[in-house]
Structures are given as structure tokens and as C-alpha cells.
């Protein structure tokens, strides 16, 4: 059987006296986007820096296509492209000069260099800015140059540390669609502290909190897991709890005010429809139903407990 494209094995890291990450295990076996989700200080950058060989772990190892980062760092790094949280851009170079320099660092043979750089620029939509100084580009275009340097050597794995941080809404949309595009034929591991961003982009999600993985599965499994199990209902003529428990799926009722209730349910999400039908039939005079959504904080609390 082929080795996983990316494998993190019992990865732990200690900065001076305290552990930043502890016993991280993860495997990626196919192209697509894996989202590393965690709040500030959760350990995302530490994990990514180690994964890319930019930081030496205290314990454990990283394998890229079965090659150990600890034993053969140069070989393992050949198939990785990395955009760190602070993109390593040289403001006084033009886009072409900068990408030439990056391509040289990435051991691209000189006869391929021009073609590889051209392809990276085209994919990132920066070809028309080839001669422009990086300092004169907008934040969104600088980030594109950062992504171009991460894919210039055509690596199988691209790691992007919070690539949409600090961008305006339009730039965020553009960078997200670029990430989708480059993930078509390779693994992209990207980090974010925004749940909705990971939900939009990723096939798989790895949630990290206080240096530990608290959830790792497909995005579909995650969405099922966090589906709401309660709703806020406003009605003019609320019935007794016994009547509400007759509606299929309702498990518990909390009376918040004389016209506002929180209704807990299990099972499918069609409960709102059944509630409306029952309300109309029985004259409860419903005014509003809102399914409660879990916030990221609540989900982390739930998963970490
Ligand atoms: N160079 C360092 N020296 C000491 N502690 C560090 C260092 N870098 C990170 N840490 C600590 O390690 C923990 C994990 O930090 P890390 O930067 O990996 O988290 P993160 O999830 O990427 O957060 P952010 O989104 O804020 O960058 C935090 O408690 C942080 O304070």
C-alpha cells in the first residue's frame, strides 16, 4: 500500500517550558483541502511550521510520501510548498525577481525555471504584475504572490497558514477560489480560526484546541455533529408542555417568558415544519422559529469536555 501523502505521528512541541502541541496525529491520503481550525494560540502555526520543516519538533515525526522530515528533511521538503502566517515577501523585488529567487531555492532546474514561474503566475492571476515591485501590490495580490511561491515547484502538498487573514472581503473571496483551484490536484492544508471559512472550503476538518486535536473527520460528519438540537419559538398562545411533546421529535421544553420557549429535539431537521403544522392546527399562533446554531466556542467546549 502507498504511504500517506502527509502523516503526522505523535507530534509534540515544547517552547521553553510549556507544551504548544501535544501528541498530534493526522493522515492525508488524497488531494483536496484539509482545514486546520482553532482559536488563537491553539497550536495551528506550530503544527504547520513543523509539518513544513521550518521548526524542529520536540517529539514525533512528519512523513511526506513516506519520507521522514527528521531523517531526510531536504528530500521531504521537496514536495511541500509553504505560505507562513507572515508571507516571506521581499518588498523591493519585482514579482518576477522574487519568483526567480524562490524557484532557485526550490531546486527547479534552470531549463524549466521560466515555464514553472509562468505557470505559477498564471494560476495565481499575477502574470500582468510581473514587473511590478511587491511593495506596490495590494494585500490580496501580495497574498497571491505568496501562494505563487508556494506552488512554483509544483509540490504535492501546499500548506497555507491563515492565508485570508487581514484581507478585505473581495480579496478573501478571490484567495478562497484560488485555494480551491490549486487543491484540484494536490493536498492543501490551510489554517483558519473562522469556522464558516473551513466549512465553505474544506473536504476534511481537523479541530485543534490547547495543542490537541479535538475533532478530525470529513466536513459532512462535522456538519452532522453540529446540527442544531434546539430552537427558539415565539408564539402568542403557547400550549402546555404535554401538547408540545406530542410533536414527533420534541424531547423537552423550556418556558423562557409567557410567549417565548426553547424547544429541544432529537432527530431530523424537519421538526420546524412539523411544529408549524401542529401550531396552525391547534391555534398556537406562532410568530417566529429560529434553530439554535452552536458557536465555535460552544463546539470547542463540547468537544474538549
Ligand atoms: N516562539 C514561541 N515561543 C514561546 N511560545 C510560543 C512561541 N510561538 C508560539 N508560542 C505559544 O505556543 C502556543 C501555540 O501557538 P501557535 O502560534 O502555534 O498557535 P496558533 O493556533 O497558530 O495561533 P494564532 O492563530 O494566534 O497564530 C501559544 O500558547 C503560543 O503563545
Automatic annotation (TrEMBL):
Q: Does the keyword Ribosomal protein apply?
A: no
Its lineage opens with: Bacteria, Pseudomonadati, Bacteroidota, Sphingobacteriia, Sphingobacteriales
- Recorded protein name is ABC transporter ATP-binding protein
List the source organism.
Pedobacter psychroterrae
- State the superkingdom: Bacteria
Q: Which UniProt keywords apply?
A: ATP-binding, Nucleotide-binding, Transport
Q: Is Transport tagged as a keyword?
A: yes
Span of the signal peptide: none
Similarity-based family: Belongs to the ABC transporter superfamily.
Mention one GO molecular function: ATP hydrolysis activity
Where is the ABC transporter domain positioned along the sequence?
6-235
